[in-house]
Amino acid sequence: MVISRSKHTRKPGIPQAFPERPFQPNKINANTTFDFEGKNLTPYGGLFPVATMLEKLKFQELIEESITVKRRLRAMSFYQFLLSMVLAIYVGFSRLHHLRYVAKDPMLTRILKVLALPVQSTYWRFLDSLHGGVAQQLLQVQQKMRERVWAAAQVRLDCITLDTDTTVHTIYSQNKMGARKGYNPKNRGKKSYQPILTFIAETREYIWGELRNGDRPSGQEIARHLQAVLAAVPAGVKRRLARADSGFYCWQAVQAYEKGKVEFILVARKTPRLLEKLRTADWKASPKTDADQQCEFEYQPEGWEKAYRFLALRYQNEKKPEESKEQYQLFDTAEYSYRVFVTNMKGALDLLVWFYRQRAGAENLIKEANNDAGLAAHPSRQWATNCVHFQLVMLAYNLNCWLLLFTREEGVKVAEMKHTTLATARLRFLFLAAKFWTHDGRVGISYSDQYPERGLFQRLMDRLRAIVPRPGGFSPVLATELRS
To answer: Which of 122, 213, 261, 274 has CB atoms 3.0–4.6 Å from 118's, for a disulfide?
Structure first.
């Protein structure tokens, strides 16, 4: 037999054209079959980092040692009830009857170590049994959790800005305790609540707040709130700045700021004496602001113990600024509209006005708490129950802020940090399809290989798992400190 030498020694050629794809995309149409036989599937795979953070920071021990409850519970422990409500709010279910939709979700039940969540009536009995002091105890829990998060996430802020504001929650029920007819610009004449909230501008954390009736807060209530806020500031902070609108313009607020050595700027309210002072002031052109003219002067309002620095801007009536009156509290006269601030801060007028305008971020945070976390959803007619639910909602809000501190890039500065709202965080990090599996006595979670944030998710889990307690706090898991 003759063997062709070239046939057995020549190297095979390399195809030049693109090969055909071996797989075709799976198509779905109206006739696609479906069933309900999938097991151990959850749409809330992003709760795993939340549970890891709470476990590593010993949240359960903190709850059990900080909150006192006399009621004997059978369906679940107090911690399980509390955690299930906070996680449900974090997921997006702000109403108690919404819990039935996640009653058997594998992620929630495994985090809580139960087979299924109790029925709605059981949650109602639990929530109604909590006394009003639990709301204050939850604030203390958040204060201690903040200290632990800052220690583990290397947050070393020397200076913080405290933004205090109120919001109006219209109450449509006629039988809710504490509802009053007061300031309610969107629903005039209807009863409402008017809670006070204070946020840390640099980290967007909720630091202190309380549910209030619909009456305007008095000077004593404002002072008591500010004193509690200053007491909750982390120990390492050396300089504290504060901003607030005209609702907090009173001597008691100024006195509380001065006693706490806080540099503040407040919007002044319209009074006849102040208007007369504005008419006789020395006005100059204001090229660095949006106003036509500016001035500053020393002025002592009636009932105040000493004079303070007042900053004023004025606009021709035909050239009013685009912002609404309610937002910046303009004084209207026949010829001018005024915007006036009182402060104990030093610095150029235009810089201080710019600094105050950054307070609009606090209003966005309140909108986030109202719309995304369900702060305005007061579930009960009982005042104490609604006060506790208020703090549970803000605890769920803070979970998002704390996770963002652990996901930050190394070396990033405070001014460069971007806030991810709770609604966006749910879409990016929470609503993740996952499947639980068990093998050889081990339990695991599988996520999609198409998840676009898998690198960020992996880095977050590595950091959270590296948290370990140490004497006096927790070991930092980021190499660089976050400073002002």
So the answer is: 122
